[in-house]
From TrEMBL:
Record-stated family: Belongs to the class-II pyridine nucleotide-disulfide oxidoreductase family.
Entry cofactors: FAD
Organism: Neomoorella humiferrea
EC category: oxidoreductase
EC number(s) recorded for this UniProt protein: 1.8.1.9
Protein name per UniProt: Thioredoxin reductase
Keyword annotations of the record: Disulfide bond, FAD, Flavoprotein, NADP, Oxidoreductase, Redox-active center
One MF term in the entry's GO annotations: thioredoxin-disulfide reductase (NADPH) activity
Keyword Ribonucleoprotein: no
Catalytic activity: [thioredoxin]-dithiol + NADP(+) = [thioredoxin]-disulfide + NADPH + H(+)
Region forming the signal peptide: none
A biological process from GO: removal of superoxide radicals
Gene that this sequence comes from: trxB
Length: 304
């Protein structure tokens, strides 16, 4: 017997969709490959989500989302999606935990950190190269680390790393940050944070682990080396849509194209959160997406 609603991904968008779907009386199941929360669940502190004036950790917020969805009957399954078959009226999702069937699907599989793409990155992944400060920051106590990027995530993670590292250098290809002004001010006021402006990393170097970076000045082209014990990369996201190639319409970057009601090019399949084409990717916008997608899915099911 197929489920009414199957949700791929247990981040803020997926869990909100699960809450709305289950509360609306739909037999709802969520497939999540890891802990609930997605990228938000790895965030040290979220200060701009309404209702938490003192801020809240990403993990705490994620667990509250999951608890609320489960309270209304949504089921969370740990599974990695390996493929889909959306050709029939009953949609099939192939996963590490077996095949799931549902009459409607919401894809909320999110996105993952974009790799830098320089020599040494793959070689030293897990040995000084990281994409998650809250996961790995404690390994760099009293060490010198680099943070690559200039957006909110890069600056937030740099600030978090100052709890452990003795020195944090933000390396940015431009001469100004893109992060919110309040984050920029905090970074500039932190004595542990320095900046390498107009600079790109061309190679990550080391022996058993990261020992330094090869840096290039984007203006003069001059190349130099600087010693670092670790490097944290935050240069944007790539959508988790490899299992959707040729299944739903994607844009050139691989994000899912949706209509205003978040329907995809396949009837009965919707998308929400960071995985879809949109201007802003925040927890609050993901939550809004989840609610819209679930209500649209409920309306679709009612029309069958």
């Amino acid at each position: 017997m197929p489920h009414d609603l199957l949700i791929i991904g247990g981040g803020p968008a997926g869990l909100t969709a699960a809450l709305y779907g289950a509360r609306g009386g739909l037999d709802t199941v969520v497939l999540e490959m890891g802990a609930p929360g997605g990228q938000a669940g790895l965030t040290d502190r979220i200060e701009n989500y309404p209702g938490f004036p003192e801020g809240i950790t990403g993990l705490e917020l994620a667990m509250k989302f999951a608890e609320q969805a489960q309270r209304f009957g949504a089921r969370l399954e740990t599974a990695t999606v390996q493929g889909v078959d959306f050709t029939g009226s009953v949609k099939k999702v192939l996963s590490s935990s077996g095949t799931f069937e549902a009459r409607a699907v919401i894809i909320a599989s999110g996105a993952h950190p974009r790799p830098l793409g320089v020599p040494g990155e793959e070689e030293f992944r897990g040995r000084g190269v990281s994409y998650c400060a809250t996961c790995d920051g404690a390994f760099f106590r009293d060490k010198k680390v680099a943070v690559i990027g200039g957006g909110d995530s890069a600056v937030e993670e740099a600030l978090f790393l100052t709890r452990f590292a003795s020195q944090v250098t933000i390396i940015h290809r431009r001469d100004t940050l893109r992060a919110a002004k309040i984050l920029q001010e905090r970074a500039r006021d932190n004595p542990k944070i320095s900046f390498a402006w107009n600079t790109v990393v061309t190679r990550i170097k080391g022996g058993e682990k990261v020992e330094g970076l090869e840096l290039k000045d984007v203006g003069s082209g001059a190349v130099r080396e600087e010693a670092f014990d670790g490097v944290f990369i935050f240069i944007g996201l790539e959508p988790n849509t490899s299992f959707l190639q040729g299944v739903v319409t994607l844009d050139a970057q691989g994000y899912i194209v949706t209509r205003e009601d978040l329907a995809t090019s396949v009837p009965g399949v919707f998308a929400a959160g960071d995985v879809r084409v949109k201007e802003f990717r925040q927890v609050s916008t993901a939550v809004g997406d989840g609610a819209v997608a679930a209500m649209a899915a409920e309306r679709y099911l009612a029309s069958l």
